[in-house]
Design a protein that fits this description.
The complex is a heterodimer of chains A (about 525) and B (about 450). Chain A has about 525 residues and is mainly alpha-helical. In chain A, about 55% of the residues lie in helices and about 5% in strands. Chain A has five domains: about 55 residues, no CATH class; about 80 residues, no CATH class; about 90 residues; about 140 residues, no CATH class; about 110 residues, no CATH class. Chain A has a two-stranded parallel ribbon. In chain A, strands 4-5 form a two-stranded antiparallel sheet. In chain A, helix 1 packs antiparallel against helix 3, helix 13 packs across helix 14 and helix 24 packs parallel to helix 26. Chain A is extended. The termini of chain A are far apart. About 0% of the residues of chain A have low confidence. Chain B has four domains: about 110 residues, no CATH class; about 120 residues, no CATH class; about 100 residues, OB fold (Dihydrolipoamide Acetyltransferase, E2P), CATH 2.40.50; about 90 residues. Chain B has a five-stranded mixed beta sheet, with helices on both faces. In chain B, strands 8-7-6-9-10 form a five-stranded antiparallel beta sheet. A five-stranded mixed barrel of chain B has the order 11-12-13-15-14. In chain B, helix 6 runs antiparallel to helix 7. The chains are: A mainly alpha (about 525), B alpha+beta (about 450). At the A-B interface, helix 1, helix 3, strand 1, helix 4 and helix 6 of A face helix 2, helix 5, helix 8, helix 11 and strand 11 of B.
Chain lengths: ~525, ~450
């Protein structure tokens, strides 16, 4: 019936006529035989048929298996105060949101509470781009209903489906890498077994990718695996591919980092030969003074160690090209590689007895400097910074910090102890330098100690109200994040004091308000925890 | 009335305003916070010298703020409502309001109790009636001319065949729609526009949809041409469909209008903004005792705000006046006595989808141009089938959830229900369900 009407309408009444007999008798009964205009007849028939169908329409029946299991909660729902705090967290600046949410989640988890069902979806949305660690906590507080809900919305990206044995066997390369990373951190031995089992079937490019991942995890089984590959599959071959050489370089970095490997021992032995100087004898020799201590790196290739063949074959290093803006010759570029990957302690010998000696030799000497914009800069500084940060060498980081400009040392601040960091800030009066404060050895959700917090707050207050040349916005963010909650009273006192100042608006908007609101939230959560 | 967060979010003009308001929902940001039994108010320091004065009528729902924002409600109103929702104890109870609050709330109450009516002399009335009659006659003639043109256009379409419709430029439809607006038949313009906005990429769907729209529009035209023979109620219904608007003020003032006093549940709100920046807010109300359904339309533009805001999920004790129609549905609020959140009695519901379809058929019988039906349906569950969400009843019959329905709201329904069967209020339009809210423990929760 309807299909016939559609066909006539599509072609037009000029080309196709309406066949009344296709219409139901109830519809036919409404036609006036005197109406002869085909367009009118078709439109009336269509309208009548439309209503005929609509009024007789019935709902469709759901076929197949329907899940009728009801999801019940077994945990207690958190009191409304938690929702209020969540709302306050949700309206804070993105800088603070995740760390505050973590406090809040920790409190719920500690008390074995779950959130009310109508809070689940807003929480998913808020935390959509947060770290997996935060999401894992969220999964703990959303109850059975929330966990059941996750299956319906893949956009929330909460399910860690990639970290399954299936992901390793059947997943994409990205899935497999995600799985391997997880394994390397949780159980490196099993991770290596897994990798070994699939190694022969992997492409060369994939192998290089996996080796890069191993580089970040220092573990005995990984070093053994790397040593085996270094000696066999990726040992030098005159017809080798570029990727194979790159694999050897990665393996060399793993082996150089570990003092027990043969490559490390052999390399360090060779490298030490190039130190020259004389230790002062007798009583005075106990001090740091060494006569003429220097590293005599040949400017050209030598037959023993510093030559392209050795570098390429043993370490997968580039035999010809180097960055001429940094290094005077290729030997310096190779030396930079060794400094970056060999643990600083391994350089010690009769002449080099501390990190200070090592740095004095390589950073203070005139042999390893480069002039940029009429300023001399140590060629090997970057390598030392990389060494200290990747190996989290606190002592080396501290030694470097006292020798180099602050701007260059910022990456090192995370690798010194909190006490050393505080001293560094106090000695150099960096209390208002947000970049320094932001990069200290404190996690995003860690507070500074009370005394240090009060020192920062009081000094920033003085400077903000009397000099006004601060980046208050950025400072406010860092301080809100790290100030100890016990500074709340001091903050209120300072704010009262600030009210008469011409610079009150800037203080209030950029410092007082964000700090106050964040401290209030943190205090509220602390109260709930007690 | 104490608002819920969800309600405040729904009445916020946009997510950004809600977020900005949320940031202000902290007691320490307010200079004063106080309340009486009819109003809450607060003062907050903004960018001007003196603090902004923010006030909310908590009995009949209304808000005011003297900030320069054009958004309504502004972020200060939203902040104050959210703060009241989460921490009503932060508001100091006062026995009297300050003058700036009192004058506003007194004025509102006076207006609510006594609708503004201009006193008109008999002579003036006579003049007005004459002028109105002339306007009506002129308009009628204008519409008739427009309708003749539209009829000819539709018949041409059918004679030549609608196969070419997908290839027609959008301007063809806009031109005809504009002509209908010129002919003072904006209702017909809407039908023409809907023909132009069909999704022509779906071959089977567009053919059915286009023929349905054309034939219904044709039926409307023919009915208008038979105007003289229609009953007065049908005459009004047809005029409304063609585009005559009825004044809510006149309707309220008319003692013969149909009025229904009830506890009305504001079951949901759908807001749409057209290209010409007119926002239409469709509020769906259900009478808890009368079991009547009502639609209250509110309009706003860039320069005007909604006069009588309604909060989804709230329950208002009010007298509604219905616009006359073959199937009276659209209404206006005559008087409001109070606004709350507590349902004293749940409205009647339908047991199955089959009952809803029967209701829909009965409504089509009363008014064939009825586009949607509102219903409360028992024991619905929602599930996903082949990437489509369906709501099925206790007999395992189902209706698809409208693809326009926000996925976040589906998730909210799922989170609240935990796969339990629930009583659901919704709109059924084009064979799909647009859910409005769910009932749980004698409470209504908007989605």
């Amino acid at each position: 019936m309807w299909q016939h009407l559609v066909e006539v309408a599509l072609l037009g009444t000029e080309k196709k006529s309406l066949n009344h007999s296709t219409l139901p008798s109830e519809v036919q009964a409404h036609f006036n035989p005197t109406d002869t205009e085909p367009e009118h007849n078709l439109l009336v028939a269509s309208a009548l048929c439309h209503y005929y169908t609509e009024t007789g329409r019935e709902p469709q029946r759901a076929e197949g298996c329907i899940d009728e299991s009801i999801i019940e909660e077994t945990q207690e729902v958190a009191p409304p105060i938690y929702r209020d705090i969540y709302n306050r967290i949700d309206s804070t600046n993105l800088h603070f949101k995740e760390s505050l949410l973590n406090y809040w989640l920790d409190s719920l988890i500690r008390k074995k509470l779950i959130i009310a069902p109508d809070g689940i979806v807003p929480l998913f949305n808020t935390a959509q781009n947060f770290a997996d660690k935060t999401k894992a906590k969220i999964v703990e507080v959303i109850g059975n209903k929330g966990r059941w809900l996750l299956q319906f919305q893949s956009d929330f990206k909460y399910t860690q489906t990639n970290i399954t044995p299936q992901a390793w066997d059947e997943g994409t390369t990205a899935n497999r890498k995600e799985h391997l990373t997880h394994m390397l951190h949780s159980n490196p031995e099993n991770a290596i077994d897994l990798l070994k089992s699939a190694w022969d079937q992997e492409s060369l490019v994939n192998k290089r990718g996996y080796l890069e991942m191993l580089k970040a995890v220092p573990h005995k089984s990984i070093v053994e695996f790397a040593e085996n590959l270094y000696k066999n599959e990726f040992s030098f071959n005159t017809k080798e591919k570029k990727t194979e050489k790159e694999c050897r370089k990665i393996l060399a970095t793993i082996l150089l980092s570990s003092e027990e490997t043969e490559l490390h021992q052999r390399t360090v032995h060779q490298l030490k030969k190039y130190f020259v100087g004389e230790k002062k004898k007798g009583f005075l020799g106990l001090g740091a003074a060494k006569i003429g201590l220097e590293y005599q790196l040949p400017s050209d290739e030598d037959s023993q160690f510093w030559n392209a063949a050795n570098m390429e074959q043993a370490y997968g290093l580039e035999p010809k090209h180097y960055d001429i803006s940094i290094f005077e010759n290729i030997n310096q570029s190779w030396l930079s590689f060794f400094i970056e990957y060999i643990p600083a302690n391994a350089w010690q010998n009769e002449l080099i007895q501390s990190h200070a000696d090592l740095l004095n030799c390589f950073l203070n000497g005139t042999n390893f400097t480069v002039s940029t914009n009429e300023k001399k800069r140590p060629t090997l500084l970057h390598a030392f910074i990389q060494n200290a940060t990747t190996r989290n060498n606190k002592q080396l980081a501290l030694e470097l910090l006292v020798r180099i400009p602050t701007t260059e040392g910022i990456p090192l601040l995370k690798h010194i102890t909190p006490k050393e960091f505080e001293k560094y800030v106090r000695d150099r009066k960096y209390f208002a330098d947000y970049e320094i404060l932001l990069n200290g050895p404190y996690g995003v959700d860690e507070s500074w100690p009370i005394e240090f917090s009060e020192y920062i707050l009081a000094n920033v207050f003085e400077q903000a109200l009397h000099q006004g040349n601060l980046n208050t916005n950025a400072l406010g963010t860092v301080m809100a994040q790290h100030l100890h909650t016990e500074t709340y009273t001091l903050l209120q006192r300072l704010n009262e004091k600030a009210k008469d100042s011409n610079l009150y608006y800037s203080w209030s908007k950029n410092l007082y308000e964000p700090i106050n609101s964040i401290l209030q939230i943190r205090k509220l959560i602390t109260t709930l925890n007690n | 009335m104490i608002f819920t967060e969800q309600q405040v979010e729904t009445i916020s003009p946009n997510p950004a305003a809600y977020k900005a308001g949320k940031a202000l929902a902290v007691a320490s940001k307010w200079v004063t916070l106080a309340k009486t039994d009819r109003v809450i108010w607060g003062e907050i320091q903004g960018s001007s010298k003196t603090p902004y004065q923010v006030q909310i009528d908590i009995v009949t729902m209304g808000y005011k703020c003297n900030c320069p924002s054009r958004q309504f409600p502004c972020k200060h109103n939203i902040g104050l409502m959210l703060l009241y929702a989460s921490n009503p104890n932060e508001f100091k109870i006062e026995s009297e309001e300050p003058e700036w609050v009192k004058s506003w709330i007194d004025k509102r109450q006076a207006k609510a109790n006594k609708p503004e009516l201009e006193e008109i002399t008999e002579e003036k009335q006579e003049k007005l009636d004459k002028a109105r009659e002339k306007t009506q006659t002129d308009r009628f003639q204008s519409v008739q001319v427009g309708i003749d043109e539209l009829e000819l256009w539709l018949k041409d379409l059918i004679r030549i065949g609608i196969l070419e419709l997908p290839n027609k430029p959008a301007s063809d439809f806009s031109k005809i729609a504009a002509r209908m607006v010129d002919a003072k038949a904006p209702g017909l313009a809407g039908w023409v526009k809907s023909l132009g906005s069909i999704d022509y990429s779906n071959p089977t769907e567009w053919q059915n949809e286009a023929l349905t729209i054309i034939s219904k529009l044709y039926l409307l035209i023919r009915t208008f041409k038979n105007y003289e023979n229609l009953t007065p109620t049908w005459q009004i219904t047809i005029k409304n469909l063609v585009g005559w608007s009825q004044s809510a003020k006149e309707l309220i003032a008319n003692n013969e209008s149909e009025t229904v006093k009830d506890q009305w549940l504001v079951a949901g709100q759908v807001t749409e903004t057209t290209d010409d920046e007119i926002t239409t807010q469709r509020n769906y109300l259900v009478g808890c005792q009368s079991n009547r359904y009502a639609l209250i339309l509110n309009f706003s533009t860039k320069h005007t705000t909604i006069e009588n805001p309604l909060i989804p999920g709230s329950v208002i004790n009010a007298e509604l006046v219905f616009f006359p129609s073959a199937l009276p549905h659209r209404a206006a609020i005559k008087t409001t006595r109070s606004v709350g959140n507590q349902l004293e009695q749940q409205p009647q519901s339908l047991g199955t989808w089959a009952d809803v379809f029967k209701q829909k058929a009965a409504q089509l019988q009363q008014n064939p141009w009825q586009q949607e039906t509102t219903a409360i349906i028992d024991d619905l569950r929602i599930t996903n089938r082949n990437n489509r969400w369906i709501a099925y009843d206790k007999n395992l019959n189902y209706v698809m959830v409208s693809p326009k329905f926000d996925l976040q709201k589906i998730m909210r329904w799922l989170a609240i229900s935990g796969n339990r069967k629930m009583r659901v209020a919704g709109i059924i339009r084009s064979e799909t369900l647009y859910p409005l809210g769910v009932f749980e423990n004698n409470q209504y929760i908007t989605l």
